[in-house]
Amino acid sequence: MAILIVEDEKKLVDILKKALKKERYSVDVAYDGETGLEKAMTNSYSIILLDIMLPKKDGFLVCKELRERQIHTPIIMITARDSVTDRVTGFDAGADDYLIKPFDLKELTARIRAVLRRRKKTDSDIVKVADLIMDKKKHEVTRAGKVIALSPKEYKLLDILISNQGEALNRKKLIDYAWGPTFKETNHELNVHIRYLRRKIDSEKNKPLIQTIRGVGFTLKE
């Protein structure tokens, strides 16, 4: 599991990195709010540890912008600001938890586990690859915060691809899921709909996610 630390105190960052790596997390770091926002939008993390008082962009704004862009990565705010007003502001911005400095590392790792357990119960409705997000409960797909309109067949194809991200899915499995097991392909229907889906998901400005696996079928991955 990957954790993003957005914190400008380098000494604290070093301590956190050491403790989290000991717990077998991989760790990425941003030392200011703008870099943290960019990394959180372009990479996949299991959780974000976010300070409030940051250079360039404060943690409240980073958290708020991530939620506005439909980035649902769990966020724990770690800060010396301990007023009730600050806590309320953090939760209203979209934070999942709020931890006051100084804190015990054992408490931090316990809170990380607790947040991940809570999020795991609801994450089945929200699936993410890079900046592509499918909200199955809302039946909504976004990329880089922009809603993408899909036909029913395109949605079903994306659903099976994103739910099995990184796995090479053969043509029969894709066709059975989108059209049903009795459907007989006659006019390259799968290729046509994958092409339509690519035009919408993998536009010129976006990194291609849908990949062809020659002799097998297709996969979706970063």
Keyword list:
single chain; 222 residues; alpha/beta; Rossmann fold; Arc Repressor Mutant, subunit A; 2 domains; five-stranded parallel sheet; four-stranded antiparallel sheet; 8 helices; 22% strand; phosphoprotein; transcription cis-regulatory region binding
Description:
The chain is α/β, with parallel strands linked by helices and about 220 residues long. The protein has 2 domains: about 1-120, Response regulator (Rossmann fold, 3-Layer(aba) Sandwich); about 125-220, Arc Repressor Mutant, subunit A (Orthogonal Bundle). About 45% of the residues lie in helices and about 20% in strands. It contains 8 helices and 12 strands. It has helices at about 10-20, 35-40, 60-70, 85-95, 105-120, 150-165, 170-180, 190-200, and strands spanning about 1-5, 25-30, 45-50, 75-80, 95-100, 125-130, 130-135, 140-145, 145-150, 170, 210-215, 215-220. Helix 1 (about 10-20) links the parallel strand 1 and strand 2. Helix 2 (about 35-40) packs parallel to helix 3 (about 60-70).
